[in-house]
Design a protein that fits this description.
Order of helices and strands of chain B: HHHHHHHHHHH
Oligomer: heterodimer
Number of helices of chain B: 11
Number of domains of chain B: 1
Distance between the termini of chain A: 18 Å
Strand content of chain B: under 5%
Helix content of chain A: 25-40%
Largest interface: A-B, 23 and 19 residues
Number of strands of chain A: 10
Bound molecules: adenosine-5'-triphosphate, magnesium ion
Strand order of the largest sheet of chain A: 6-7-8-3-9-10
Shape of chain B: globular
CATH class of one domain in chain A: Alpha Beta
Number of strands of chain B: 0
Radius of gyration of chain A: 18 Å
CATH architecture of one domain in chain A: 3-Layer(aba) Sandwich
Structural class of chain A: alpha/beta
Distance between the termini of chain B: 20 Å
Largest sheet of chain B: none
Strand content of chain A: 25-35%
CATH superfamily of one domain in chain A: P-loop containing nucleotide triphosphate hydrolases
Number of helices of chain A: 8
Chain lengths: 240, 260
C-alpha cells in the first residue's frame, strides 16, 4: 500500500534521511521508532506531501505521490504538533475539515469517546494541551480511511484517554487497516505494534516484530532492547 | 480553490482590517470632496493617497495575514487539496476582501456626490482600478516575500523595505540617475524605469486619462510623448497586469517546492 523507496532528505547541512526504504502493506500496526530528530516526522510528512524528498520516491497504492493529492483522501493523519487556527471553536474547526473533505465522517462517536461535548463551543486557544490533542485525534480519525498515520498520538493525554486511544487504534486494526504510529512510549509500542521500524542515523536500522527485536538485541525487554540498539549502533550489522 | 478563497475572504471581511481600510478611504474621499467641492481635484488628491497607501496597507496586511494564517495553511496541507489551491486561494481571498474595502470606500462618497453633481465615471473607474491593481500587486509581493522568509520579523522588514523602495526611494533614485547621466538617452532610461515600478505606472496611467499634462511630471511626459495618451494608457495597463501576474506565478512556483 505504501512504499518508501530509497528516500534522501537534508535540511541545509543536516542529513536527516540517507536512503530509507520500507513498505507497509496488508494491514496491521507499524511503529516507527527512533531517537529525537531521527526523521520519523519528516518521513511521515513526506507521505502526506508536506515535505519533499531530495531523492527517492514514495508510492501509494502503486502510484508515485509526487504532484498528486487525491490519495490523501485515503489517509487519516494526526500531526505531531496540532496547529489549528486559534480563533475557531472546536465545532467550527470540525466543520471546516468536513467542508473541505466532504464525505460522511463520524465525529460524534469520537467526541463521546473523549468526552469533548462540553468543549465544543470553546475556542481552540482556550483549550488545555491534552484537550487540544483530543480534538486533534477527532479530526484525524473521524473519517473511515484505509491508512492511518499517527505521529505521537499520546502527547498530553491522561491515562483514561490513553486507554481509549489504544482501544480505538486496535479497533481500527481489526478492520484490516494499515496503521503507522510513532511514539516514545514503550508500553504503547508493546500493546499496539505488529512490527517495528527503527530509524537511526538516516537509515532503517531494524525492521521486524517485537520478539525479533528482542532477539536481535539479546535482551528480554523492549525498553532494554531499544537502549541496546542505540548503544551498539556502530557494532551491529543491519537487519532489514 | 473556491472553498479556500471563501474561507480566507470571510475571515478577513470579519476582521477589522478590511473595515479600517474601507473607513479610511471613505473618510478621505468624503473629506476631499467636501473640501474641494470638485471631483477632478478630489481624484488627483486621492491618486496621491492611493498610490502610496494602497501599496502600504496591502504590504503590511499581506505579511501579517500570511504569518497569522500559518496554522490554517498547515492544516490544509495535510488535506486532499492541491497546493496551488491552498496558496492562490488564500491570496485571492485576502486581496479581494481588501480590494472591496477600498473600492466601496472610494465609490460610495462619489455615488452620493453624483446625486447633486455630475461625476465622470470613466476617470473615477480608472482610479478605482488602479487602487485595486496596486492592492493585488503589493499583497502578492508581500505574500511572496513571506513565503520565502520563514522568520516573521525578517519577512515583515523585507516587505516594508520593498514598499519603501518602490513608493518613496524610487523617484529620488530616478532623478539622481537622470541628473548623473547627462549624455545618455535619458528618455529611454526613464521609460524603462517607469515600467519597473507599478506605482509610477499607476500614476502615469491615471494622469494620461485625466489629460493633465501639467501633472504628468517628467516620466509621464516622456511616456506621453512616446506612446501618446491612448496607446500609453493601454501599454501601462498591460504592464500593470504583468506586474500582477508575475508575483502570483512565483507564489505558485515557490509554494510547490517548499517543505512544511
Ligand atoms: N523544515 C525543517 N527545516 C529544518 N530542519 C528540519 C525541518 N524539519 C525537520 N528538521 C530537522 O530534521 C531532523 C528530523 O526531524 P523530525 O521531526 O523528523 O524528527 P523526529 O524523528 O520526528 O523527532 P521526534 O522524536 O522529536 O519527534 C531534526 O533535526 C529537525 O530539526
Ligand atoms: Mg517527530
Amino acid at each position: 500500500m505504501i512504499q518508501f523507496q530509497n528516500i534522501y532528505k537534508s535540511f541545509g547541512k543536516l542529513e536527516v534521511l540517507k536512503g530509507v526504504s520500507a513498505g507497509v502493506d496488508g494491514g496491521g500496526i507499524t511503529a516507527i521508532l527512533g531517537p529525537n530528530g531521527s526523521g520519523k516526522t519528516t518521513l511521515i510528512k513526506m507521505l502526506l506531501g508536506m515535505v519533499y524528498p531530495d531523492k527517492g520516491e514514495i508510492m501509494f497504492n502503486g502510484k508515485p505521490i509526487k504532484k498528486e493529492w487525491q490519495y490523501k483522501n485515503d489517509i487519516s493523519y494526526l500531526p505531531q504538533i496540532a496547529r489549528f487556527p486559534e480563533n475557531l471553536t472546536v465545532t467550527e474547526l470540525i466543520n471546516l475539515i468536513k467542508d473541505i473533505r466532504g464525505g460522511t465522517p463520524n465525529e460524534q462517536r469520537l467526541i463521546d469517546l473523549f468526552d469533548l461535548d462540553s468543549h465544543l463551543g470553546k475556542k481552540i486557544k482556550h483549550l488545555s494541551g491534552g484537550t487540544k490533542q483530543k480534538v486533534n485525534i477527532v479530526l484525524a480519525m473521524m473519517y473511515d480511511n484505509p491508512v492511518i498515520v499517527l505521529d505521537e498520538p499520546s502527547t498530553g493525554l491522561d491515562p483514561i484517554a490513553l486507554v481509549r486511544l489504544k482501544d480505538l487504534v486496535l479497533e481500527e486494526r481489526a478492520k484490516g487497516k494499515n496503521i503507522l504510529i510513532t511514539t516514545h512510549i514503550m508500553s504503547l509500542v508493546e500493546d499496539l505494534s505488529d512490527e517495528i521500524l527503527f530509524l537511526l542515523e538516516g537509515k532503517v536500522y531494524f525492521r521486524g516484530t517485537i520478539p525479533e527485536l528482542k532477539d536481535f538485541a539479546g535482551e528480554d525487554n523492549l525498553e532494554k532492547s531499544i537502549a541496546h540498539l542505540l548503544e551498539h549502533k556502530h557494532a551491529e550489522n543491519i537487519k532489514v | 480553490m473556491l472553498k479556500i478563497l471563501k474561507y480566507s475572504f470571510y475571515d478577513l471581511l470579519r476582521s477589522k482590517w478590511t473595515l479600517i481600510y474601507f473607513l479610511f478611504f471613505l473618510l478621505i474621499t468624503q473629506g476631499l470632496l467636501y473640501i474641494t467641492g470638485d471631483e477632478a481635484k478630489t481624484i488627483v488628491g486621492l491618486l496621491n493617497v492611493v498610490v502610496i497607501l494602497c501599496p502600504l496597507i496591502a504590504t503590511v496586511f499581506g505579511t501579517v495575514n500570511f504569518y497569522n494564517s500559518r496554522e490554517f495553511t498547515e492544516l490544509l496541507l495535510a488535506q486532499p487539496l492541491k497546493r496551488r489551491d491552498i496558496f492562490i486561494g488564500q491570496y485571492l481571498g485576502m486581496t479581494l476582501s481588501l480590494s472591496i474595502g477600498y473600492f466601496l470606500g472610494v465609490l460610495i462618497p462619489f455615488v452620493i456626490h453624483s446625486i447633486t453633481y455630475t461625476v465622470d465615471y470613466s476617470v473615477l473607474s480608472i482610479l478605482l482600478f488602479v487602487g485595486v491593481f496596486l492592492t493585488f500587486i503589493f499583497s502578492a509581493l508581500s505574500f511572496l516575500i513571506s513565503l520565502i522568509t520563514d522568520n516573521k520579523i525578517k519577512g515583515f522588514g523585507l516587505s516594508i523595505l520593498t514598499w519603501l523602495l518602490l513608493a518613496l526611494v524610487y523617484d529620488g533614485m530616478q532623478l539622481f540617475l537622470l541628473s548623473m547621466l547627462d549624455n545618455y538617452p535619458l528618455e529611454k532610461i526613464s521609460l524603462v524605469m517607469t515600467f519597473l515600478n507599478p506605482i509610477d505606472l499607476s500614476r502615469v496611467m491615471l494622469m494620461l486619462k485625466l489629460d493633465m499634462s501639467a501633472l504628468l511630471g517628467y516620466t509621464g511626459a516622456v511616456f506621453n510623448k512616446f506612446f501618446g495618451s491612448s496607446f500609453g494608457y493601454a501599454i501601462s495597463l498591460s504592464a500593470l497586469l504583468i506586474w500582477t501576474v508575475i508575483p502570483v506565478y512565483f507564489i505558485n512556483r515557490i509554494s510547490m517546492k517548499k517543505d512544511f
